[in-house]
UniProtKB/TrEMBL annotation:
Keywords assigned: Sugar transport, Transferase, Transport
GO molecular function: transferase activity
Residues in the signal sequence: none
SUPFAM superfamilies attached to this UniProt entry: Phoshotransferase/anion transport protein
Protein name: Mannitol/fructose-specific phosphotransferase system IIA component (Ntr-type)
Length: 150
C-alpha cells in the first residue's frame, strides 16, 4: 500500500528517453518535481547522486532503485520509469536497466523508507512482475499492477 501513496499516474514514465544514468536521473526528477512542486530539483539530484556514489542502485534483472533522502520534504515521493531499449547504468549484474523505481524520502521518516523498499522487494521477487510491467500500456495499468500485486 505504501507504493501507491508514493507513485501516481503523473509520475510514471512509460517510455524513458534517457540513455545514461545521468540523463535518467534528470528525466525522472523532473517528472517528480512537476507532480510535487515542493521538491527542490537540485537538492533531489544531489541526494540521488550522493547515494549512488556509495554503491550502484542498479540491482539485478534489469531493475534500478535510485533513492535519496531529503530534509526539505515531509512525505515520500517518487517515479516509475520503463525503458524499452535499456539504459547503461553500471548495474551489479552488468546489464542495462529497463525498470526504474526512484524514491525521494523525508529525512524524518525512516519507517516509510524501509516499508517502501520492502514492498518493492517483495514485488520484484514475483517471477512475472517485470514482464507485466513491460506489457503495461498506461500509467494507470502500472498503478493497477502495483495494487494487484501487493
Amino acid at each position: 500500500m505504501v507504493l501507491q501513496q508514493i507513485f501516481s499516474e503523473n509520475t510514471i514514465i512509460m517510455n524513458l528517453e534517457s540513455e545514461s544514468k545521468d540523463e535518467l536521473f534528470h528525466e525522472m526528477v523532473q517528472k517528480i518535481v512537476d507532480a510535487c512542486p515542493a521538491v527542490d530539483r537540485k537538492a533531489a539530484l544531489e541526494s540521488l547522486f550522493s547515494r549512488e556514489e556509495k554503491m550502484t542502485t542498479g540491482i539485478v534483472y534489469q531493475v534500478a532503485i535510485p533513492h535519496g533522502v531529503m530534509d526539505s520534504i515531509d512525505t515520500a515521493c517518487g517515479a516509475v520509469g520503463i525503458s524499452k531499449k535499456g539504459i547503461e547504468y553500471g548495474s551489479l549484474d552488468g546489464n542495462a536497466v529497463h525498470y526504474v523505481f526512484m524514491f525521494l524520502f523525508s529525512a524524518d521518516d525512516n519507517s516509510g523508507h524501509l516499508k517502501a523498499l520492502k514492498e518493492l522487494s517483495c514485488l520484484l521477487q514475483k517471477p512475472d512482475f517485470t514482464r507485466k510491467l513491460s506489457d503495461a500500456s498506461s500509467p494507470k495499468e502500472v498503478l493497477s499492477l502495483l495494487r494487484d500485486t501487493e
